Amino acid sequence: MKTVFSATQLAHAPAQEISDGKLQPAVEIPSRAEIVLSTVKDRKVGDVIPPLEFPIRPLHRVHSEEYVSFLERFWSLWTASGRDAEAFPFVWPIRSLRQDTKVEHIDGLLGRYSMDAGTPLGQHTYRAARASADTALTAAKLVLDGEKSVFALCRPPGHHAGHDFFGGYCFFNNAAVAAQYLRDYGLHRVAILDVDYHHGNGTQALFYDRPDVLFLSLHADPKDEYPYFLGYADETGEHAGTGFTRNWPLPLGTDWEAYSPALDEACRWLLVYKPEAMIVSLGLDCFERDPISGFKFNSEDFVRLGQRLARVGVPTIFILEGGYAVDALGTNCVNVLEGFSG
Ligand code: OKP
Ligand code: ZN
């Protein structure tokens, strides 16, 4: 299996994040990508190739022009306002506040275009997020050109980012951008299976009213876990998309034995839907030693996950999402890829 990777993604290197009421060391850090890359090489998964540089258009198919341009201009606005450290939003246009004003202050813009205060932005965030999206787009193009499976080693991750907001360490929704690209360049039915520990709220929202992109997600029950406000079992799509979203919220402490029946059910939905390609939002944060998560996968369980996904039998793009136990991240990620390839 080919891996797509760009070192530009390493330029986003947050030092701290807001979590548990204090500034703590950031967990979505460059060494995540570095260990995955070195394990891909050590275990000879296949060639590692750089992404193509795509124009802005495929991003505008998913994200608003205003949002993309905000991210692009962010650092110059931030430094022009006299700040030099990494940024966190802290005020949001919630219920009863006006949605219709034209925000100009950088603190207002940060709130306008974000969902949480836990996602640091820095000088190189935009460049790294573009490279991450290019990585996913290149994987999509390879599948359109006939590859049966590709690994997009993306960082920063994407599945929490929506049409016009960042959050959950995500800026551009790499899986959604890849899915839309597949649709725009010839495929009729695309499925996204999200196995990250956290619900992929951004991806779900982007395709919620559409039947052409099936969204299936297994994750920690949002009543107990971030993102809290989406990912419940009664969310099944709307309008033309009714029935094309499915969620499996699972209790804290879920191990492989409790997870695999839900995964089987998701795979049965895939067989019914018959996608021409599948995108796997591959988080590795179901791991028992993940520092921010509460599931109980061991490293062997990730091999089983890959094996199960192979039995779906469709061209597959793996897109890296979360996973924060850095020492084991390469092993767990490549275990999925090897389990898949057999
Ligand atoms: C991103 B991805 C823990 C704070 C957690 C947000 C988690 C984002 C996960 N105290 N903050 O889905 O892995
Ligand atoms: Zn996650």
Helix segment tally: 10
Helix content: 25-40%
Compressed to H and E, one letter per element, the order equals: EEEHEHHHHEHEHEEHEHEH
Strand order of the largest sheet: 4-1-5-10-9-6-7-8
Task: List how many beta strands DSSP finds.
Answer: 10
The hetero compounds bound to this protein are: {5-[(3-aminopropyl)amino]pentyl}boronic acid, zinc ion
The share of residues in extended strands comes to 5-15%
Secondary-structure-based class equals: alpha/beta
**First-residue to last-residue Cα separation:** 11 Å
Give Rg in angstroms: 19 Å
Poorly predicted runs of 5 or more residues: none
Per the principal axes of the C-alpha atoms, what is the gross shape? Answer: globular
The residue-averaged pLDDT reads: 98
Main sheet overview = 8 strands, parallel
Report on this structure.
With 342 residues, the chain is an alpha/beta fold. The chain is built from ten helices and ten strands. The chain has helices at 30-42, 57-60, 65-80, 106-112, 125-144, 174-184, 201-207, 256-273, 299-310, 326-341, and strands spanning 2-4, 16-19, 22-25, 48-49, 149-152, 190-194, 213-220, 245-250, 277-282, 316-320. Strand 2 and strand 3 form a beta hairpin. Helix 9 packs parallel to helix 10 (326-341). The longest helix is centred in the middle third of the chain and has 20 residues, at 125-144. The protein binds {5-[(3-aminopropyl)amino]pentyl}boronic acid (OKP) and zinc ion (ZN). {5-[(3-aminopropyl)amino]pentyl}boronic acid binds at residues 19-20, 118, 157, 160, 168-169, 196, 198, 226, 283, 285, 292, 321-322.
